[in-house]
Amino acid sequence: MNKIVFNWVVLFVYLFLIFYLSSLPRIELLEKTPEFFLRDKILHVLEFGVLASLSYNAFKNHNILNEKIYFYIIMFATIYGAILEINQVFVPNRVFSFYDILANFLGSLTILFKKLF
Q: In sequence order, which ranges of the chain are alpha helices (DSSP H)?
């Protein structure tokens, strides 16, 4: 399989996985992990850091995005996170949270570290 196609497939699978897990009434995996302050926000940062990295791998081969690719990746991940939060309004035992959107944004900013190093 072509590397470009592979990167897009991995991105779409990850996007679907995030959507699926955020659409569940509760996530049993999280209930089995130890509880600590800001656990949820740290998981959002990690989740969207991975999303930003996968998005970079998929988008980097498109010449049209080269100049502002990091901006587009951060906006893509943040808007996708906002859509997921809106979707959670309709899911039992889930709530909309601006802090989750902020954590998603901060996680997507980790893509800038790839640019620096």
A: 3-22, 28-32, 39-59, 69-88, 98-108, 111-116
Half-sphere exposure of 82 (CA within 13 A, CB side): 8
**pTM of structure:** 0.84
Give the count of alpha carbons within 13 A of 27, CB side only: 14
Per-residue tokens: 116: 């620096």
Helices first, then strands: H and E counts in the chain:
6, 0
**Buried-exposed string 6-44: b where 16+ CB fall within 10 A, e elsewhere:** ebbeebeebbeebeeebeeeeeeeeeeeeeeeeeebebb
Check if the beta carbon of residue 96 is closer than 8 Å to that of residue 89. yes
Show me where the domains of the chain are located: 3-22+40-116
Which burial class, exposed, middle or buried, applies to 89 when counting CB atoms under 10 A from its CB (0-12, 13-18, 19+)?
A: exposed
Q: List, for the chain, all residue ranges whose pLDDT scores fall below the cut of 70.
A: 26-37, 63-65, 115-117
